[in-house]
Structure formats: structure tokens, C-alpha cells
Design goal:
This protein is an alpha/beta fold and 314 residues long. It has two domains: 155 residues, Alpha-Beta Complex (Quinone Oxidoreductase, Chain A, domain 1), CATH 3.90.180.10; 131 residues, NAD(P)-binding Rossmann-like Domain (Rossmann fold, 3-Layer(aba) Sandwich). Helices cover 27% and strands 27% of the residues. Strands 3, 4, 5, 6, 7, 14 and 15 form a seven-stranded mixed sheet that branches. A six-stranded parallel sheet has the order 10-9-8-11-12-13.
Length: 314
Amino acid sequence: MKAIVTNKYGSVDVLEYQEVEKPVIKNDEILVQVHACSVNPVDWKIRRGDVKWLTGRKPPRILGGDYAGVVAEAGKGVRGYKAGDAVWGMVHAFKGGTYAEYVKVKKEEICLKPENLSFEEASSIPLVGLTAYQSLICKGRLKKGDHILVNGCSGGVGLAGLQIAKALECKVTGVCSTSNLQLAQKAGADYVIDYTKEDVFKSKVMYDIFFDAVAKKSFSQAKTILKEGGTYVTTVPSLQSLVLGPFTNMVSTRKVKIIFVKPSTKDLAILKEIVEDGKLVPVVEKVYPLNGVREAHTRSETGRVVGKLVLKVV
């Protein structure tokens, strides 16, 4: 099968389009023919070696955390899936494997694909959707009527978080640049703050959750606009959040939470319902062929992607 292979850490030049062996599944695994996968910032952070303290010194051979495709084969111990089923899902990004024509997954890493999405659209959601959902629900304890602030609301995770919060009947303030104000409004934001013109921390509005979808603001900043009992959730751990977070959580009513997203069939099924209800709409900036991965990574590294970038495999 064709796949994008890395043999060392480095620039986009280490991404090689090569022929590799197709995965062989065990009795409790599923082989998926990947139709599309998406590019996430964690992919190029792994590729560059930025997070080798988490992934190890030896580079993963194949990157990629989410996918949409068709079941090619189900192990003898697998129930609920059969060859030909259209599916979507996520593997641990540090494990990788979806930048390829086939990927083997566990049952807890997969779910039937939303019927109203193409494979390209569907592949753009699992990692960012699960990150946003688990951040808001599992970490933030989001409930109906809460007012949340989404910092970076025009990126993949931010857009997913904005729409999920609105689906749960919450009030949402989004933060983005001037060029993305209309996108945030279209996605359902009740209020949008243009960070190039307004300092969100000078606002008199207080929030139940400060969701930092781009990991650009610290808890010490966020707590100034968090209500008593509010929660700050970040998508990337920092020294402050890792070291001081547990102490802060013991002594303060305002909490610090870090999301380490996990594959979850249960959570994917909830996202599927939200998507099919038309309340979570994917935003895909561009679709590249699998062998166009270098261009896709280069674009993603600018930090200016609106929504998601997708790699079309089939």
C-alpha cells in the first residue's frame, strides 16, 4: 500500500510517499481502507521532534490521527462492523498510522460515519471534534446555559468547540482575527471578539469556561475573566499548567484542566448525532492528494488555517 513515511525528525522533506506493507489485523482489530485523513498541528510537531519527550527519540514511521473510510476486514472477535461499512475514527496521534491507504484500529477507535458527510468532510472531524467535546464536557463540565469563551474559534478545534457548545444550548463568545469574524458568526457564535482590535481581558464579561483551543493564553490571564467555579481548559500542556495546575485546583475555585484527547466510540457516536442534526458542520480549507502532504504540512505550520486541511487517499 502507499503511505507517507518518516524515518527521522525534520522539515517537510522527511515526509516520503512510499510503498509499505499493508497492516495485518488481529482478532480484535479492524482493517480500514482509508479514503481520507486530516492534517493536525500535532502531526508536524511530531514530525519536527517538538514533542519527542512524549513520543520517544525514534520517529514514528507513519503519521496521522484521524480518518474516514470503509471497513476492509473485521477480526473474528469484532462485532458490529462488517466489510463495506463506511466509518470514521481516531487513533492516538502519537501512535499514528492514518497517512496511508490502510490502517488497523481497535473497536474503541471507530464509529459509523455520519451519513450526511463525504469521506473528506468526515475525516476532518474526529481528532478536533473529540478534543473539543472532551475538553468541554469531560474537563469543563459544560452544561446548558453556560457562557464559554473559545480562544482561536476559527481553527479546527475552536470551530468544533463553538458548534458543540451551541448544540448544547450554551452562550458562546469566540475570539479570532478580523478575517474570520464572519466565519465565527456563521458557525453560531453569539459574540465575536477581534483580538487585533480588542483585549479580551479588559472585558467586563465573566465566563464559566475559558477554552483555549490554540494554547495561546495562560491560566493566570484567563482567571481574571472566569467566574467563581469556572474552568480554564487548554489543548497543550505548559510548565505552568502541569506543575502549578494541581496546586491551583486544590486551593482555588477556578480550575485548570489539560486535555489529552482519547479515542472513544461513545463520544464519536455523540458527535455523529450532532453532525447529522446539522449542528456540527465541518469547515475544510483545502483537500490535498496524499502525495501532497508536504504542501499541506507547510500550510498547517503557518498557524493560519481556517478549519481543517484534508488528505484525499482514495
